[in-house]
Write a structure and sequence with these properties.
Layout: E1 2-11, H1 18-25, E2 43-55, E3 58-69, H2 79-83, E4 88-93, H3 98-114, E5 123-128, E6 149-153, H4 159-177
Parallel strand pairs: 1-3, 1-4, 4-5, 5-6
Antiparallel strand pairs: 2-3
């Protein structure tokens, strides 16, 4: 069965790896082929189909609109348009952005999840790490995130795990909105 298109925002600080994650999830690029990161200007929309999603023992195919949003605050004037019709939010940060992540994640969560009245099940935090020693404790997130799923991802060693985590997130969104 085919469901309607899901609009999911991918947002977080600049240089946290959002575009790389978007490309990998959508199978737009292979992790080994990825070049040096380039800053996203405003937003980039990646469309793809996610197949064989099991929601309440029914199998679905779902079109995904993944909005890869710039982490640069000079594009903040675009935020109201980005948020229209959003059904899921993936917050991304990395050890390199962890120093500012707590305040930034709180701001993004409030604007893109709380204000449009999304459930915490419609949000996930991906902590994009390259080092096995990185853990979520180092982020020191506020209690706001106690109900938000937090996942450590490593594209170099755990790419297939990321696809499973993303599929589980899509199931969570679909269960919440249906």
């Amino acid at each position: 069965m085919h469901l309607n298109k899901l609009k999911i925002l991918l947002i977080g600080p600049s240089a946290s790896g959002k575009s790389l994650i978007a490309n990998f999830i959508s199978e737009s690029t292979n992790i080994e082929e990825a070049g040096a990161p380039k800053a996203t200007q405003g937003v980039r929309i990646v469309e793809f189909e996610l197949s064989n999603i099991n929601v309440n023992d029914k199998i679905y195919n779902n079109d995904i609109e993944l909005w890869d949003c710039s982490g640069d605050h000079r594009f903040e004037s675009c935020w109201p348009a980005l948020r229209v019709g959003v059904q899921g939010v993936i917050l991304v940060c990395s050890p390199g952005t962890a120093h500012a992540a707590n305040r930034e994640m709180e701001l993004l969560y409030n604007y893109f999840v709380s204000q449009p009245k999304l459930s915490s099940k419609q949000c996930v935090l991906f902590y994009n790490c390259t080092d096995e020693q990185d853990d979520l404790e180092s982020l020191n997130l506020s209690p706001t995130f106690s109900k938000v799923s937090q996942v450590i991802i490593n594209l170099k060693t755990g790419g297939s795990r990321l696809k499973i985590d993303f599929s589980n997130f899509v199931v969570s969104i679909l269960q919440t909105i249906n």
